[in-house]
């Protein structure tokens, strides 16, 4: 796996670089966000790891830019500190994961493998639930004949719901499947994500298919 480290901390990058190389990763470390964006656009990067002291507005803009390309490169943030609000902002900006250092090598590697599984295109037939249609291999979705404008995270969340129509999905299930941040303290990430999807797939069409089950989770109406 080839990783690009964007070191905004000035101290974590060199240590992380050495540790990753020792574990068999191919690693490049830079400190300029504009170069990181350029490197992610030309390809051959499996993930960008952003190292920072604490997530800042400029960091969120960098995440959004890297994640908006046609050939989207996964983004992981490694922060010295981050509270729940920081986590929500980083994930909503388009990051695939956020970790707080120190983090064990085993956990770091496992999270990268999980991201690789989620971001590898899954070819398969279209999925239809009621008037919703989703094409996993094209990363496109429609309500009736209207194509939906979904972010990568919103698309992934909708795909999980459409693969389990009519089933009650807990916040923990959605965290594991879409964010891979598996503990209840950050379940507000799911609430915000579902709200964003609902605004795209239901409200413009006068629908109420993505339902909240109070105290339990969410359900996409089956028909």
TrEMBL record:
- Residue intervals annotated as DNA-binding region are 124-222
The alphabetical list of record keywords is:
DNA-binding, Phosphoprotein, Transcription, Transcription regulation, Two-component regulatory system
Q: Which GO terms describe its biological process?
A: regulation of DNA-templated transcription
* A molecular-function term among this protein's GO annotations: transcription cis-regulatory region binding
Q: Which residues form the OmpR/PhoB-type domain?
A: 124-222
InterPro entries in alphabetical order: CheY-like_superfamily, OmpR/PhoB-type_DNA-bd, Sig_transdc_resp-reg_C-effctor, Sig_transdc_resp-reg_receiver, WalR-like, WH-like_DNA-bd_sf
Cellular-component GO terms for this entry: cytosol; protein-DNA complex
Domain of life, per UniProt, equals Bacteria
**Gene3D superfamilies referenced in this protein's UniProt entry, alphabetically:** 3.40.50.2300, Winged helix-like DNA-binding domain superfamily/Winged helix DNA-binding domain
Which parts of the sequence belong to the Response regulatory domain?
Answer: 2-116
Q: Which SMART domains match?
A: REC (SM00448), Trans_reg_C (SM00862)
Q: Name one Pfam family in it.
A: Trans_reg_C
Q: What is this protein called?
A: DNA-binding response OmpR family regulator
The organism encoding this protein is Yimella lutea
